[in-house]
Every structure is written in C-alpha cells, then in structure tokens.
Amino acid sequence: MVTSVLESIGNKAPRGKDLSSQDRDELLRALNGLTLNQARQAISHAILEDGALTPRAVQGVLDRKAQMIKEGGLLEYYPLADNRFELGGFANLKAWLQRAYLGFSPEARALNLAPPRGILLVGVPGCGKSLACKVIARDWKLPLIKLDAGRLFDKFVGESEKNFRKAVAMAESMAPVVFWIDEIEKGMVSAGSGEADAGLGRRLFGAFLTWLQEKKQEVFVVATANDLSVLPPELLRKGRFDEIFFVDLPNEEERTAILKIQLGLRKQNAATFELKTIVPACDGSSGAEIEQAVVASLYRALSKKQPLDTALLLEELRQTVPLSVSRREDIARLRDTAKGRFVNVR
Known about the structure:
By secondary structure, the protein is of the alpha/beta class. Helix content is 51%, strand content 10%. It has 17 helices and seven strands.
C-alpha cells in the first residue's frame, strides 16, 4: 500500500530522503491495526504535510490513531509528551520493570522470549498504584491507554462484548503500548458476581482472561485493585500476569520523597521545611493524603497571607484523619491477605 501511494504520486511531489530500514519497519508497525483505506489516508496526509514521506510520518500515524481512540469513546489516551509524573519509592517495582523492558528487545526475540505480559498492582487506596501506571509508560517511552470498564457495558444484548473486542483491538493497534485497567474489581470482576446481569460480567471477565493469556501484540497490561476479597483466584494465578505487587502505606523514606515532590510541584523549596519533623507526622498517611495536606496547607497560607512553613503544614497534618485510622480494620485485613502472597513494591 505504501509503495502504491508513492508510485501514484510519481513526480508530483519530491520523495525526500529515503526511509531507513528501521524507519520503514517503525512506519509499518505504526500502521498496524488500520484498514488499508485508513492507512492510505494516513500516508497521503503525511506526504502532503512534509512534501515527502519522512520519518516524521510515524508520529503522524500514531497521532491519527490516538484521535481514533478518543473518538471511539471506550479508551483514554495519554500521549508520551504529556507524561511527566514522578513516583517516590517503589524500588522493587522499578528494578523489576528495568528487567522486564528487555523483553521488548531483539535479543529477547532471538531467544524466543515473549514480551512482558503485564502486572497487577493491589493495595491500600491512594498509595500510588495509578501513578505507577503513568510512570511505567513514561520510563518505557510508550503511549498510555486507559480502559474504564464501566464504558464497556451497554443495554443491548451483545454490545458489551463487542465494545470489549473493539477496545482490545484499538489497544493492539497502538502496540507497543501500556494498557491501564484501573480498579479492575469494580468493573469486570464484581460485575459478574451476581445473576442480575444475566452473566454478562462473567462473559466479559472470561473474554478478558482469555485475551490476557493468548494475546500476541506488545500490549503491557497494568491492572490495579483495592479490594482483594472480590478478586477471583483465576485472575491471581501465574500466567495471567507476570507478577503481582502489593502497594502498602509509604515508609519514612518514601514519605520524604513524596513531600519533596509535592512541595516542588507547587513551587515550594523543600529545603526550607523541617522534614525531620514533618515526615513522622505523616506516618500512616497515604501518598494522596500527603498531597492533599500540602494543598490544604497552601490554601491555609494564602488565607493568612503568609508563606507556607513547617508549622502550617504540621497543623494541617494534625487535623487530617488518614484512611489507616478511619478504616483501620479494612487496612489490617488487606495487609494480612497480601502478606507472603504478593511481591512488595519496595
């Protein structure tokens, strides 16, 4: 198709610099998932923009596919250029990801090693599971696609399964890509726990497990879950995911890193704060709660028309009741369930 488009143009437009073998392979891979007509339009558009078929055509094709994903309404697309998130701690997870990324290399393919399948992140709410998904995509320099399982369900018979197949096909068309399924227990898993949906949830969940086991495209799935009690055993067995990680409340080192990141994001110099006093006051708080404390203390400082200091931040932290206190029994149960079963992220 690419050759036929270039031949049809003939001498009407300059060819420009010939694509290298690597550029050509990347272009053909970028066109994967498009119909021939869609691919022809994408190539023609790239030539019209640059006056020739250049390596920039690869990004142009990916941009057009991203637009198709947005218009589809089932997935959210996070461009790599907009992904600048930071993650404090998670040393074990980061080390595992460095090794797993080698699965995309030619050396791994030469050894008949399949690309990494995906991971499941389970743990305490607000402790960085969703943020980790974004950081994985950024570190691997891959686009990020998020599936909201609630968007799959449709009132007409058969449409929900069709939506799932469509979402999966769009994700595969963007490969290599990070495919984020947030709070999987509230979508596919819990939906099939009763008979009210006539088995729709179970069928969707079964289709997801089959696809996860059999998929061939380089789609790295990152699923997150807060409630382990509703996760069926077939989701947790080896072979579905490469690894299952448990995300606990941040330790002292991670709380320090989170405070520095959150203060820096809001143009505060962390060196001017007494972190040795603030960090112990954050004990038992999740990353999200620490972030909210920084935000609320800044509003408090603005209302008092004074700069944010250690005293104001401590005052806000003392008035915050963390989830580890308000739902102490649930957090303890979650930790007991995960102990010895899953790999800790730190």
